[in-house]
Amino acid sequence: MNDLATYNFAYLDEQTKRMIRRAILKAVAIPGYQVPFASREMPMPYGWGTGGVQVTASILGPNDVLKVIDQGADDTTNAVSIRAFFQKVADVAVTTKTKDATIIQTRHRIPEETLKEGQTLVYQVPIPEPLRFLEPRETETRKMHALEEYGLMHVKLYEDIARNGHIATTYAYPVKVEGRYVMDPSPTPKFDNPKMHMSEALQLFGAGREKRIYAVPPYTEVVSLDFEDHPFEIQQFDKPCALCGAENVYLDEVVLDDKGGRMFVCSDTDHCEDRRAHGHAGQMLARPTQESQEAAE
Amino acid sequence: MYVAVKGGEAAIANAHRLLADRRRGDRSLPSITIEQVVEQLGLAVDRVMAEASLYDPALAALAVRQARGDMIEAIFILRAYRTTLPRFGYSEPVDTATMKVERRVSATYKDLPGGQLLGPTFDYTHRLLDPSLIADEAVAEPAAKEPGEHVMRVSDILDGEGLIEGDGRMPEGHVMGDLTREPMEFPMARDLRLQALARGDEGFLLALAYSTQRGYGRTHPFVGEVRIGEVEVELDLPELGFAVSLGLIRVTECQMVNQFKGSAKQPPQFTRGYGLVFGQSERKAMSMSLVDRALRTDEFSEDIVAPAQDQEFVISHADNVQATGFVEHLKLPHYVDFQAELDLVRRMRREYEAARAGGEDGMKEAAE
Amino acid sequence: MAAQSQIYAGAFADPVFQAQSVFRALMDCFARPGTVASLAALASPPSPLGKASGAVALTLCDHDTPVWLSPALAKSAVPQWIAFHTGAPVTETKDDARFAFIERGGAVPSFDQFALGTQEYPDRSTTLVIEVEAFTGGQPLIAKGPGIKDETIIAPTGLPDLFLEFWTANRAIFPRGIDLLLAAGDAVLCLPRTTKLSLDENARDTGGKPPHTFPYPARKEA
Q1: Cys-Cys with C73: which of A107, A145, B185, C69 at CB 3.0–4.6 Å?
Q2: Is the keyword Lyase in the record (chain B) (predicted)?
Q3: Domain that holds residue B242
């Protein structure tokens, strides 16, 4: 049983890679359409990034530099685990620097730094079907996509407005791709939706458990659904990042103590570190820096 | 900042060391061998092989041990190995009529050719804890230990009179599907449904089968026959022009006989539900056959009124590796999305408070 | 026997990494229509199939992908070569084909004879591989659509006369339709069904202008 450990480069066998590669090419050719594929069992659980891992494993080569993030951070446990998996099975170079990566696998965020031509962003997707919570049946949702019948989605969003005065969807906010397919951007906060529009990078989406792959090619229209009197808007934060002072970025709320103390810091850890390395300092860092300067004097 | 801390790698490594420690347990006790698991926890091994769809007792036993006895975890480990195996070809259908039968019971006839063969069953044991197992007392040899015998199928008795529908046949030209190689599509043909059920979670199928007995999609079932034994697996090699035997596997087969009143097109006759699983598992094979029959609504123009009849519901949720992954993924960090929701709830509360304050002011003004 | 050696030779020496490099080029080209990429790995299929088309077949075809071959290819040793190296069944029915190959100068059937997918499953369509003379010197066409910033010009030589009509008809049935892969020498140019093509009325001769090539990011040496 010692020959058990003989796994192929990037884990997947070549036949599986070919099947996934064919699905990726069709996904690119039909932006926003979910291509069914024969998803495999992966050595990590369904729901933990098996779709993204299968896509990455199928496109990855020895010259790639891989970055893996979860919640925007390179050091969240699942990101660490997936990065370690690819180091083990593909001996691939890894980085935490967004700009150095050729492939970025992500769960729940799009990096703050604008992605460039030649980069590929691979999303881990739990529920690829944007209409799933309106209609649980695949047979029905497939018809709705075929007929471009998206009225139900608008009704749902409008009910939000009627009840709450605004659209109550904050993440996995549906988008329309190239004027045709309504697509689930994966559970990224709607803050990230505008980054998908006319991106220079290729965006690939893998849903392992639900067995779907879809794509947004570079320079493709991605429009968040909205209404004339209730235009789409993204989250705004009152304060800049407490560590690097960045504004107009997505922030995590960090609970500091049990007396209601809070601070808001960049969700994109690489972006935050990069800014700090370039001398930017937020409120929490500014004071210690001053003190240490004083101490040095 | 439990997740955002540096050193996630070290934390994971430490957790895995702890897991290895717990798995090994008290070092003063001997470690269980794979052979011991295969020999003494054979039904656990069988379930793992069945739901992982890989017939290899040694690897299944390794998975059981590696998973500390967690069956779904063991199934998952073995499936993740199976998926990397190259596919050389597809075997011929096993011929269960030629099975070397170790156990065979029928509920529809008192006696029949070949007889009722109880075999190694828990049935009719009294479920009393047996202290002799603790003392590891010697176990007597069984009365007869012959390799098994060929016996006729019970369904053939009914078939001879034309009282039961034929053995399931797919339409002419139908290419057998494989849902581990092709994406699922609904409505799903019976061959793929049976594959999904054979790999499906025993507990889920048991509950669904039970629900049909309690009136949620009733099928009036009788156990035509349950048989357990070894069958030969053959691979047809076009280059050779004949099939070669790959070996014997132990399977459990259940033919459920169900009432059917007939329709405009068909005379009244019995219908079938079919179950076939790796290893010895009557519970799984019987559950499978009940659910198989319940799912055949389109063939018999039956209304879908119960969960067990709804193929999209049943097949989409039968896979325990998928189910456990997605349920358990909720423990992964979700704080980015939660932040977005937190922001929305705070905003809605502010609006609510403002509206209420406005309302109270309005009330006061009205009262004044 | 020469024919035999033709059939058994000419595949990738290092299938795992060569298939990966070819696939990445194809993915980038489909994501950026009009881009010409030289394949880093080539095949040596029997004549008259070209090196780049052969590499595409080795990269994407297998048991699960029926392949249609033009009459000239079907008569050559190519069917056996594809069967031996990829296991793909060769079909005579265009509508069954996941991939179709047409050699340089071969007659190109109208695209609607191939599998176009359905409204529910538009992905179930043929990917057509047509070999052309060159990617320069032909009638300039303006390409627009997903993957193209503003617009780009392509000018392949050796496209069938009715190409633009075929393509326009294909574009009109979106989301159904074939996807097209043009091959010349060691290079490919991809046109997914989303790309809109029109005659460049102003262009007289852009034949000398080099086509847009894909700027790969600086790759780290291992």
Answers
A1: C69
A2: yes
A3: 100-122+150-168+179-325
